[in-house]
Input
Amino acid sequence: MSKVKISFNLNYEDIVVEVESNKRLLDMLREDLNMKSVKEGCGEGECGACTVIVDGITVTSCTVLAPQVDGCSVITLEGLSKDGELDKLQESFMEAGAVQCGFCTPGMILSAKALFMKNPKPSKDEIKRAMSGNLCRCTGYKKIVEAVEIARDK
Amino acid sequence: MGNFNIIGKSVEKKDSLSKVLGTAQFAADIEFENMLYGAVKRSEVPSAILKNVDVSKAKALPGVVSVLTYKDITGGNRIGIIIKDEPVLVDDNIRRIGDALAIVAAETKEIAEEALKLIEVEYEELEPILSIEDALKEESRKVHGKTNVLQEKHLIKGDVDEAFKECDIIVENTYKTNYVAHMFIEPEAGVAKYENGIMSVWCSTQNPHFDRGEVARTLNMPQNKVRVIQAVTGGGFGGKLDISVQCHIALLSYYTGRPVKIVTNREDSMKVSSKRHPIEMKVKTGAKKDGTILAYEAKLTSDTGAYASYGPAVVARAMTHISGPYRIPNVRIDATFVYTNNPMAGAYRGFGVPQAAIAHEGQMDALAEKIGMSPIEIRLKNALRVGDCTPTNQKLNDSIGIVETIEKAVEKSKEVIFNEGEVK
Output
């Protein structure tokens, strides 16, 4: 498969990579760039485990081709904490006990992060709507919503 | 309460930091130098005689390092937690859609997937057995051995036939539940590494000690040369108690001498992982006019699919729970679980108990309606209390929470469903 050169901003750093033109964004992030927080649950955009933020909008990275992020800014969970300092969402997920098996957690936190980028004071309904593309099979939804509310109020 | 360090305190979940940072290592996240990627060739038909598996074209594909079939298994080729009836790689008959026929290790996962298409499987299709009824016909082909009955069990307490004669009210109903998939959000995955005579397996599992035994037997290695390390596991709910990738990655690593990773895709996970047993429950309950239950009879039949998995444990649990948390002096439970060519059913949150609850609670409501009693009152009247015995004659000496639970539920229902005084 032919490779294409793309440049984009990953977690606040400009990078240039050569990537197979048919590679999924999910695979480029996990395999080529070692962003292992991006999880594959279903491979068809249903579960939200592979959610990342592209230009401020959440996307399921399993349904996006890598070259599509050329010129974009991409945020993964790795980009949220700086120098060991946690994002308030990371803190609130721990505080509320919103983490069980942890496989949906990266996508959940990023969906909440994208919501805050647009709307720093969302209502509970707005939070639920923003998180509706992320499945938690351990059924910890109540605490997940609580965690986002705690972060909102911080 | 004394001043304890932990008890009564809210403690932080030990692994929550690594999980909110995204650094927790799930099996698919584990990487080794020189690692190969594995893939599994699976059957597309539910029932067939396997004639031949030709792997020559797959082996010739550049980038393919190893292709294995049952002939390459150095140890035992039957696995299973209770009954060893599932092949690591099919050697005689295909018994379900998704049975593993061959495994590949290649330099990239794309090459491994490509190689699967080059494996030529020759088989003679058989009429599949897809219902309990068909499985139990005398002339039916047997999925395993000489009978399609996995287990037939009976639980008898008192004399139900005599007790039914004394009953004023009898209700009889049939309840059927369906398959349920666990749908753990992380598909099964693992990495095996064979080094200095030691086989190490990192995998998404609920059952590392069982996995170690099965890997050891498959490879004909002593257990002290096999290490199974549970990776951070993305949900299981019973569905990761069975073997998934463990034996396949171990075989491939053993033959190639290189680390091998398999990450199952959602489609294969859905096909192959165990399911909740569908159970048909024919239930008859008899009571006096005042609501006192005297007799309870249930006939359970269930489809355990192609392999036993935890089926025998589910039989026992469904039987011992199907009369519910109620004091019933006369009980007769008959259960038959059968093999078919359907998906394998196994452990699933409650081992048959949730299915049984649908039947025993349905019966309580039906009985209450027929007698004209409140569904709450009839439950409280018959609820087990300290000192009572279960159908298996276990005396409940210390505590049983059902009365308290019902009372709390009534209290709560007043808040959320009914207005005060409207509970009927």
About this structure: The mean pLDDT of chain B is 96. The longest strand of chain B covers residues 293-305. The two ends of chain B are 40 Å apart (CA to CA).
